[in-house]
Amino acid sequence: DAITERSAISAEPLQRILGVKGQSKDGMFKGIIGRKTKMPCDCEVGQEMGVNTWAAFAGSDDNALVDGDFAAHEDELQSVLKSLRHAGINIVAIHHHMRGGMPRILFLHYWGKGKAEFLAKGIKAALQTQERP
Q: Please, where are the H alpha helices in 50-128?
């Protein structure tokens, strides 16, 4: 099914599932979940410096598209990949943005199509495979 031209995503259910207050604009929704890592300077970097997982939803609640970037420690990669694929979410790329961070953060670009709440639950399941402070 084609995604509607005008988006009408309900933010509240997605915020509840993801556990974050998101941003809504023009019927779309975006949620951001931060991480932290230490750089070689022994300084900590986090969400404000781009160390985060984000998910942007468009379409309708019953026929949505999710697109995003997932931040994972190197040793979490396989569990995150398996969890996202289990939810029917496709992996587009795996790469890193930073050199020397400890633990090393890898980023997964992803997308999926389906019911918005089902997609959000798939992302949440992948987040739950991670160690978070």
A: 77-86, 116-127
